[in-house]
Design goal:
The structure is a homodimer.
Chain A: E1 5-6, H1 18-23, E2 28-32, E3 35-40, H2 44-53, E4 56-59, E5 65-69, H3 73-80, E6 93-95, E7 98-99, E8 105-107, E9 110-115, E10 118-122, H4 128-139, E11 144-146, E12 151-156, H5 160-168, E13 180-185, E14 188-193, E15 202-207, H6 210-223, E16 230-232, H7 236-241, H8 277-286, E17 290-297, E18 308-312, E19 315-326, E20 331-339, E21 349-353, E22 356-363
Parallel strand pairs in A: 4-16
Antiparallel strand pairs in A: 2-3, 4-12, 5-10, 5-11, 6-9, 7-8, 9-10, 12-15, 13-14, 14-15, 17-20, 17-22, 18-19, 19-20, 21-22
């Protein structure tokens, strides 16, 4: 595939770590929430194996925060998601599908409950802050909505635990999955969550002090030598194998949370109030006719820039939305929206990658 | 400056013209409304002179439309902008600053009144559809909000008039600036506005039928040979000289419309109702302390990826937000937020471009 440059400008915001990751050899960016998000350091497969064996530090500042503060903060956050947050606890992270009044997906952030009246929504790629502002204005809610200067640095991979213990002390080991707490490094306090956009384990450091964050970034590389630390970024291959869905790639506003497999994050039975509840009740009664599933394809490369139709003979089985060559499986792995009649995974699929026809099978998610 | 590739994916949406502009030699993209927007065909200065002399066809599908239909459509559009739309006419385009309740800028689309109950907002780069959905849900407005599959192709440059007349007939000549009407090509109807993101004259074709639009695109190149037609894109140099402000570059949510020089699009005196009106009244009474102005700098290159401070001795004069080398002026031209005490344009400025110090002056907008 032909490659194209990215035309940088102030609108495609840099992060506090941009100059560092450029020194570390980033080669490609994507844009996420109007910000540079590193996408490769030149060899996706090498980065994939490294992530699964060692530890990487990622600049994921593009996971911007919508901060909601005020008497009605919890009410507003609940209005935006179909997940029941009535028992949410301070110090915990919640994966929350955000939907519109028709039940269409808008985003799938991680919500952090910072206090009874303060939340952060750690966003996928869409301006949910504008949705929040619109609702708050329409309902005259008592909230302040902003995008604070919070820049996330992720530490991911099996050796992330040892590295973070070395830098921040043993206290970090007490942190449970999707919990967060505060830790101090060189006099600066950091909110750190045990979370991240890989299934290899690790942390996300919510940097509120740019200089302090840069100092911690540098220390992670110094202290991380013995753990073979490298700069990295969310890895396309790993995230597809692990079924970490990507908003805008795997689903968009035309899909509802049932189709995305988010059933366990949908509450249509309790008394909670959110936009789109009526629509979801209706969808639930009617049932869905398609859902996201995995596919495994006999091919050694692919680049998905638009939906690719999956066929069986002349019948459309579904649409491929993300895919990458997995050097572990020696096949292409992908995430696709599959029609109901093919959910039994028995039907072989074919597709065109460029001009070449390839064959594959449907599987469950996660793939690995 | 080091160059980086763009990591394509479905999330960074392709347009109906992507394969064509790639054949035509696009080299760099930016991302705009989650879509590929061409940024260069390899030589910005050559493209600048060509745009000012001939005619170019641009893929600006990334100017996505928010479609608002329904009994409350006009009410909702008015709620989002400080411009008085009470006398807006069907068939006309309106440049409308969109603000939040605090008076901060969110976008600066062109609004097209399609009928009494139907509008399109032709967006700059932010998800105003989510703002509209939030307000509509909060106020229970009777509207349908969507992003229709409308993809804009612009025809820009002094020879655009002759080219469009040749392809679409003499009727197109009757179109006035910021007016729109419908024209037929090979059986497909196109909404065409006399507008565009250059000051060189031309049209924007709102393509609602992908195949029809591709056919028109191809015809423009066939018929345009005699006018020296080329593929192009919004040109950084030309748009800065002409002071076509770029949302996210020249202003953002931290700026109000007075600071952007949008005074003539602000109505705080009539009875119209919009979010942020109270805030604008307050700002208006207090007065502003900074505004966007032009700068001319003695330098032969620049790349702005973050605000660059402008100094006089040790005093900060303002912040540079966009800039490019102008081969006409043989200097760097830029758009900057300038403090009130320097609005008289008498104070020389200095700035660092990379490690090099350069000198310049403040000027009015547009620069040329």
């Amino acid at each position: 595939m032909k490659k194209f440059y990215i035309a940088k400008s102030r609108r495609l915001r840099s992060t506090p770590f941009t100059s560092r990751i450029e020194s570390h050899g980033v080669t490609a960016y994507t844009i996420y929430n109007h910000m540079l998000l590193p996408a490769s350091f030149g060899n996706l497969e090498k980065e994939y194996f490294h992530l699964k064996e060692h530890v990487q530090v990622w600049d994921v500042a593009a996971e911007r925060q919508v901060q909601v503060i005020g008497k009605d903060a919890t009410k507003l956050v609940q209005l935006m998601t179909c997940r029941n947050l009535s028992k949410a606890k301070v110090g915990r992270c919640y994966y929350v599908p955000i939907i519109d009044e028709l039940g269409g997906m808008l985003n799938d952030p991680v919500a952090l409950k910072l206090s009874e009246n303060k939340w952060w929504l750690s966003l996928a790629d869409s301006d949910i802050g504008l949705y929040a502002k619109g609702i708050a204005s329409g309902l005259s809610l008592k909230v302040e909505i902003s995008e604070p200067d919070v820049n996330i640095m992720a530490v991911q991979g099996p050796k992330s635990f040892k590295l973070m213990e070395k830098v921040l002390g043993k206290k970090i080991n007490k942190l449970k999955f999707f919990g967060f707490d505060y830790y101090t490094f060189k006099g600066n306090k950091f909110l750190i969550a045990r979370s991240g956009w890989s299934k290899q384990g690790g942390y996300e450091v919510y940097v509120e002090n740019r200089k302090g964050g840069q100092s911690l970034y540098d220390e992670l590389f110094l202290a991380g030598k013995e753990f073979n630390v490298e700069a990295g970024c969310p890895n396309l291959i790993e995230r597809i194998e692990s079924a970490l869905l990507s908003s805008g790639n795997d689903f968009d506003n035309g899909d509802n949370p049932y189709e995305c497999g988010f059933d366990k994050y949908i509450d249509i039975d309790s008394e909670i109030d959110y936009l789109g509840k009526k629509a979801l009740i209706k969808i639930s009664k009617k049932g869905i006719n398609r859902k996201l599933m995995g596919v495994i394809i006999d091919a050694d490369k692919i680049e998905v820039t638009e939906e690719i139709s999956l066929y069986n003979s002349n019948n459309i089985v579904g649409n491929l939305r993300s895919a990458a060559y997995s050097p572990s499986l020696k096949k292409v792995v992908g995430i696709a929206m599959i029609k109901k009649e093919y959910w039994d995974k028995k039907t072989p699929i074919e597709l065109k990658i460029g001009e070449k026809k390839s064959n594959g099978t449907i599987c469950d998610l996660p793939i690995v």
